[in-house]
Amino acid sequence: MVTTAPAKIVYSRPKSLSDLPTHYCPGCTHGTAHRLVAEVLDEMDLRERTIGVASVGCSVFVSQYFNCDFVEAPHGRAPAMATGVKRVLPNNIVFTYQGDGDLASIGMGEIMHLAGRGDNITVIFINNTTYGMTGGQMAPTTLPGQKTTSSPNGRDVEFHGYPIRMVEVLSELEGTAYAVRRSLHNPKHLRQAKKAIRLAFETQVRELGFSIVELLSTCPTNWGLSPNEARMWVETNMIPVFPLGDYKVSPALKRIKV
Fold this sequence. Notes:
- This protein is α/β, with parallel strands linked by helices.
- The protein is about 35% helix and about 20% strand.
- The chain has one domain (about 30-250): Thiamin diphosphate (ThDP)-binding fold, Pyr/PP domains (Rossmann fold), CATH 3.40.50.
- It starts with about 30 loop residues before the first helix and ends in a 9-residue tail after the last strand.
């Protein structure tokens, strides 16, 4: 009689994620970003004292997908709400989860002042160059020449202006302790993104100041591409405009191995 050893579980749902299917389109990397954040919260044992602030956009239901406390903010106001939560509950870990339309357009004032104050809050910033939830209109991060439902001939920089590189802008503020850009388009960059998210939460735990991780994300539906084509589009088109890298890292973080 041949016996086999019980299967070893090597991959399972993080405790910080709810056991619910998400509403995201096939190939969208919002769900991937959720998992990376959840894994970090588990590994750092932060879930029980974490409060997330949801933005308005494709991630408007994010509170249902994370297994930690969450509050919903009006469009663009997640940083302001997070500031209130952190000041009332300073010992809690507070993070916002925002898209490019929410953070870089209607929420531009809020994110700038959050970083300027240097509040110990972490921001997970999803950049897919479009207003995904409302039909694929041009966003502050839309690439030059990129066609959207509100720029059918492509973004004309002479008329519409240039895309805003938020991490570069925020890195110039004194209150910012950690500002980096990563991508979600392949396994190598997913590993790098998770390390960055870990350091962002380490920044908050060590009370070093404001931290933000920008994640280049896919939007196959509004880009009119297959999921695999969308991944390649990030590599070919997004990264040249939004270079990956560390734009500001507090010296206290450089000694941490993750």
